[in-house]
Specification:
14 helices, single chain, 2 domains, binds flavin-adenine dinucleotide, FAD/NAD(P)-binding domain, about 475 residues, 21 strands, about 25% strand, alpha/beta, Flavocytochrome C3, Chain A, domain 1, eight-stranded mixed β-sheet, six-stranded mixed β-sheet
Length: about 475
């Protein structure tokens, strides 16, 4: 075992880690990134990203006050100092990425599509990342880091934080299977979350994690959370994830993930379990619905149910719409001329009465009295009355976990009493305290990764210069 010294060590070479590393190098610090992936183009969620840089699905350039309002409305558990820090630095994050050489395009007329990394992810179903948004971004940030004198060690898996007198002073890692230790003035954990850690998913998100779809790169195995907890850090909001409902057939058909997803349909249709009972307030949108399905005893027992009018309307919503891509790519869509026939087809014995009660509530305007209630935050309900009727079997596609390591508005890792652990920072989707809450509020994986990466590096640099 040998030891090398840096001002800053970063765990994870995704967007959050490479942002922190580049910003630290810009500010004159010596920096190294430990990345467990060994390939030149190691996989991570950033590599797979669609590339839409937004805040709460609004234009990221909308200004601090608008962002504070949107985040507070959607994320009722968010820390006020973190909300303010994200809102205040949103525009700067885009400008910083531009300064690093990133190009953006406007992908649609929707405000949140104004800043999309170029070249964008493709507009067809299935996964296609090579030479696109996240791949180009990571290669650029990797090159910039090398030019600035920083190091990116691939095949380097961080195992433990080295803590002395309550302060983080380095990392023990395995490099190509060999133990190695590094010492540093500060560490940034940016390992991407615990979406691919079955034990953590089982403890916090689903009793049957093996029945969720891993709508991600499979690299977020919770190492950062475990290391931080061992060092005395608090964790927050571990029971929520960002993800979508996708066709159940995505478990065996790679053309059906990460797109199309059912968000647009969910805003208008109903979500039922195998008995035909509604299981969620569909008005809270697709991310909330995916969390509800993951929480079922059997997360592979849910259906999205709708009629011909909804299929022709909301079914065509979104950049990669369920109608027609679901059928075109071989996904199952049950269809019947009556609700009674549809109920028999999918074996849901209470579907008829569920739809009858739902239609009455929609037509009389009494949707909040339904159980579960129906609100309209993410879409207006429509009655299900026009044949033919449809039921699509769906599963919960988990993209990344929203909760994680507790941090403050400077990305400092916090203990349960809110005191920072000296020398320890976290950035990107390994952190908690921003997204989630009762509405499973989604702020944006890319925006929070860049912003918290910048915040961490700048705080370390401030400390390093005695500021
Ligand atoms: C299909 C898909 C589409 C998406 N589309 C969008 C979008 O359009 N807009 C948006 O805002 N967000 C989107 N996201 C989310 C966004 O891409 C991520 O939230 C963001 O890129 C996360 O960055 P990160 O650096 O936190 O994590 P990652 O990019 O996952 O990087 C973490 C890195 O840490 C490494 N690592 C893990 N453990 C260790 C360890 N012990 N030692 C060393 N290295 C380790 C991993 O190998 C990985 O390289 C999408 C995600 C997916 C999967």
């Amino acid at each position: 075992m040998s030891s090398r010294e840096y001002d800053l060590l970063v765990v994870g070479g995704g967007l959050a880690g490479l942002t922190a590393a580049n910003r630290a190098a810009q500010l004159g610090l010596t920096v190294a990134v430990l990345e467990k992936g060994a390939d030149d183009r190691y996989l991570c969620n950033t590599r797979y990203t669609g590339g839409t840089v937004h805040i709460c699905l609004t234009d990221i350039m909308s200004g601090e006050a608008a962002h504070v309002e949107s985040i507070e409305r959607l994320c009722d558990d968010a820390r006020p100092d973190l909300v303010r820090a994200v809102a205040r630095n949103a525009e700067r994050a885009v400008r910083w990425l531009q300064g690093e050489g990133s190009k953006f395009i406007k992908a649609s007329a929707s405000p949140h599509h104004r800043w999309v990394l170029a070249p964008p992810g493709r507009t067809r179903p299935g996964l296609d990342w090579e030479g696109r948004a996240g791949d180009v971004l990571l290669r650029r940030l990797g090159d910039n880091l090398t030019e600035r004198g920083g190091a990116l060690f691939r095949g380097a898996r961080a195992r433990d934080l080295i803590v002395a007198d309550g302060r983080c002073v380095g990392i023990a890692a395995d490099i190509a299977g060999e133990p190695q230790s590094y010492s540093s003035s500060a560490v940034v954990l940016a390992d991407g979350g615990y979406q691919a850690a079955p034990d953590l998913l089982k403890a916090h998100i689903s009793s049957a994690p093996e029945r969720l779809h891993q709508r991600n790169a499979g690299t977020g195995t919770g190492d950062g959370l475990r290391m931080a907890q061992d060092a005395g850090a608090a964790s927050v909001g571990l029971n929520r994830f960002y993800g979508h409902l996708i066709s159940l057939d995505a478990l065996t058909n790679d053309n059906l993930w990460p797109y199309p997803y059912f968000d647009s349909l969910i805003g208008t249709a109903i979500l039922v379990d195998g008995e035909g009972d509604r299981i969620d307030d569909e008005g809270l949108g697709g991310v909330h619905a995916a969390n509800a399905v993951a929480g079922l005893a059997d997360p592979q027992s849910a259906f999205v149910v709708f009629d011909q009018d909804i299929w022709e309307g909301a079914g065509k919503g979104g950049l990669i719409s369920v109608n027609p891509h679901l059928i075109r790519e071989g996904g199952t869509l049950h269809r019947a001329d009556s609700v009674a026939e549809l109920a028999v087809l999918i074996g849901a014995k209470r579907l008829g009465q569920t739809i009858e009660r739902y239609n009455q509530a929609v037509e009389s305007g009494a949707i909040e009295a339904l159980s579960p209630p129906r609100t309209t935050l993410k879409g207006m309900p429509e009655p299900i009355r026009t044949a033919p009727y449809y039921a699509a079997p769906v599963c919960a596609g988990i993209t990344y976990t929203m909760g994680g390591i507790a941090i403050d508005g400077d990305a400092r890792v916090l203990r349960a009493d809110d005191s920072p652990i000296e020398g320890l920072y976290a950035a990107g989707t390994t952190t908690g305290g921003l997204e989630g809450g009762s509405a499973s509020g989604y702020v944006g994986g890319l925006s929070q990764s860049v912003i918290t990466g910048l915040l961490a590096a700048e705080h370390v640099a401030g400390k390093a210069s005695g500021n």
